[in-house]
Amino acid sequence: MAASASWATDAHYGLQELMGSGDGSPVSWDPRTGLWGGPSGPYWFQSAIAVTTLARYGQRTPDQNSTINQLLARTYQLNVDSSRNGSPNFINQFSDDTAWWGMAWLAAAQWELTYRQDQRDAARFLSVAEADAAYINRLPHPCGGIQWSTDTPPHTISQAAFITLTAGLARFRQASGPFHNSSLASQWLSDAQAAWSWLEGSGLVDTSTGRVTYDSIGSTTNCQGFVGGPVTYTQGEVADALVGLGVALDQPSYSGLAQNFIQDTLSDSQFMYNGVLENRCEALSNNCQDNANQLDTTAFKGIFMWAVGDWSAATGSSAFSSFDQAQATAIVNTAIYNRAGAQQPGCVSATTCQLAFSWARLISPPLITDATQSSALSAFINVLGPVGSVPGTAGTLGAELRLTFACQGAPGQSCQAQATATAIEKLSANGKQIISALAGKPRSGRYKVVIIAHGNAGAAAGHRKDVSIGLNATGRTLRNKFKNVPADVKVTTTTPGPTTTISTAKVTFGLDPPKTSLAAAPTTKHANVRFDPRCRGLSPQFCKGTAKITAYETLAADGKTITGLSASRSSNGKLVTLANITWGLKAGNNSVVIVIGINTTGKHLLTKFAKIPATLQITPTYNGYTLTPISKKITFKR
């Protein structure tokens, strides 16, 4: 447990150093360019690796969400409209570079949607990822595969990176929610399968042994011969491509093939030294200094660690947990330096947390770049435990305590928490009578702190859960007597390690919310619907909410032509909003008549189809909480 806590601290400060403010650190992000790089200028593909590292870190812990979001937004803003060759969407002449950027923005979109619930940022980041995949797919396919760059043969890495990207896009579009699109999901999955079919039959990989046998086809002239051999990142990226394809297809056999590539790497002495991952060139020269692609090589181990983490998440297996822990331990013991160049076992601040290239060997002087920082962070991310949090603050709805509990971590992990509300009873002089319920401890006189609500919360990693905890007998007695009961709320978690307070709030348990109902069934006339909500409650209370009318367009195979309308969702249906208003009325068993006209889209559909089957959903809200909606089927007729 102590080691786990240390790794979390090292990851925290290591990420802070990666997100630096252009203060001269060789690993820090530069806010002027929105990229990473040394004195000679930004590093393009390594910057994509850094963006992915930030997003993957954010998926495991809410530790630095705000800063990550600001950095991603500026990187996007400064670079989305142009790149090194003047193309938008982070495209350049290298297919694998474009795929790395596509994967980076897909990871960012997943983080924004799942953990920040920011649909706007998720949409614009997803747009880049899909544009990158579409661009790569439009390029010439010499010898049937994906060219590495202009007029070059297909490479294993360009093929594998494209598969990882398109399989990831398929999974994103398959998922229910605001970006679900079965047509696009099928398209991306088909592209991923076709790319894998070519790679599997190309002779570049051997799935039975898990070995990348060659780096590329030898020539585009006759598509004969092979060049190069396996390196850590091609081994890792092929494994990651297989993991992604297996998840998108829901076929675990692909994870079995991916395991072959991971295990082959871990069993090969040219990639392992005393149980620690290294690139082949590290054993041949310090920091691979004799390698012409030294700066590229600094990113390779991190890409392999992504594959291990993704495989573990997809399978729920701990088969490689000992390997993950060995890498994190080796980095702590060997690869952490301060800015003065002194090696030290652990980070105590961002400036003491530069992470070096070599994990297996103590090399002086160390090689430290943004990519070595990202690679080591990727190893730390694999060993982070789940983290529970309370987005927003706790509140009340009548006699209920309401809060949202979120858990960030790897699939298969979960978080547990306890929420407790306490109140202060003001007592009489003899201590036998309760005079009032106080918001704070009195300066004088007798009082008693009592628990008025307590409950547990749990959520799986990657999910959030709305929690409702009712008052206990003591709480109900106080509320019945005094109507309003101020309380202090504390939420604690034991996942992982000792009990930790993650949220506190001051709340008041008050009146039950008023009840909204309909005095009669809604009626339609041409393009209008009429309904009369009723508000039952005490005179100071107020009912309010939204009223929304929706329908589903049935689409043809082209995904564009509207062939019909339905009130219910179908596999080829597109949700459209025909009207959306807010309403309100005072409590007191009274009702009002509300008439809603459908919008321009609705009028166009009514003209075309003469009839629109739709759903009217009336959603009451109270104190910021959504109450039980009222849903009614209606039909507009021309």
Question: Care to describe what's here?
Answer:
With 638 residues, this protein is of the alpha+beta class. Among the domains are: 98 residues, no CATH class; 123 residues, Immunoglobulin-like; 123 residues, Immunoglobulin-like, CATH 2.60.40.1930. It contains 15 helices and 32 strands. The strands form 10 sheets. Strands 25, 26, 27, 30, 31 and 32 form a 6-stranded antiparallel sheet that branches. Strands 15, 16, 17, 19 and 20 form a 5-stranded antiparallel sheet that branches. Strands 12, 13, 14 and 18 form a 4-stranded antiparallel sheet that branches. Helix 8 packs parallel to helix 11 and helix 12 crosses helix 13.
Q: Total number of helical segments?
A: 15
Q: Can you summarize the main beta sheet? A: 6 strands, antiparallel
- Radius of gyration, in Å, reads 29 Å
- The first-level CATH class of the domain at 387-509 is given as Mainly Beta
What do the pLDDT scores average to?
A: 92
The counted number of beta strands is 32
- Uncertain runs: none
Per CATH, the architecture of the domain at 387-509 is Sandwich
Strand content: 25-35%
Task: Assign the CATH topology of the domain at 387-509.
Answer: Immunoglobulin-like
CATH homologous superfamily of the domain at 387-509, by name? Immunoglobulins
Q: Determine the N-to-C terminus distance.
A: 68 Å
What class would the helix/strand composition place it in?
alpha+beta
Overall geometry comes to globular
Classify the helix fraction into a percent range: 25-40%
